[in-house]
Amino acid sequence: MAHVARDAKALTARIRRIKGQLGSLEEALSGDADCVAVLQQIAAVRGAVNGLMAKVLEDHLREHFAPVEGTDADEMEQLVGIIGSYLK
Questions:
Q1: Which DSSP symbol is given to 81?
Q2: In whole angstroms, what separates CA 84 from the centre of its chain?
Q3: Minimal CA–CA distance to 77: which of 62, 56, 60?
Q4: How far apart are CA 13 and CA 29, in angstroms?
Q5: How many Cβ atoms from other residues are within 10 Å of residue 10's Cβ?
Q6: Which of 64, 85, 65 is nearest to 75 (CA)?
Q7: CA atoms lying within 13 Å on the CB side of residue 39
Q8: pLDDT tens digits for range 24-41
Q9: DSSP code string of 8-71
Q10: 84 to each of 20, 21, 40, how far by Cα in Å?
Q11: How many whole angstroms from its chain centre is CA 35?
């Protein structure tokens, strides 16, 4: 996945933020955190992981499918948009 290596610094930063969110979630569950706060933290982690997935998937599509002859740029943008919407 050479295209991932090109953006490794940004992806690594996302992963570090997710680790921080998971650490906060673990502390909340270990402590006496309010249920609503825990649920919000879980939702935040899920959103962050979905964002990471969307970015890697978008890069993969652009790298491997956009160069295919006959692939229309508008169609690729639509596909990337649909996937991005689904993962939000």
A1: H
A2: 9
A3: 62
A4: 24
A5: 10
A6: 65
A7: 3
A8: 999 999 998 999 999 999
A9: HHHHHHHHHHHHHHHHHHHHHHHTT--HHHHHHHHHHHHHHHHHHHHHHHHHHHHHHTTTSTT-
A10: 24, 22, 21
A11: 25
| CB of 43 closer than 8 Å to CB of 53 | no
- Report d(CA 61, CA 79) in Å as an integer: 9
> Which amino acid type is present at position 86?
Y
**CA-based nearest residue to 51, from 6, 5, 78, 83:** 83
Tokens 């998971």 -> residue: 22
Whether the pLDDT of residue 23 is over 90: the answer is: yes
Integer Cα distance of 19 and 11 in angstroms: 12
| pLDDT tens by residue, 54-77 | 988 888 888 877 666 666 778 888
The first and second tokens of residue 73, run together, are 């740029």
Distance CA 15, CA 31 (A): 24
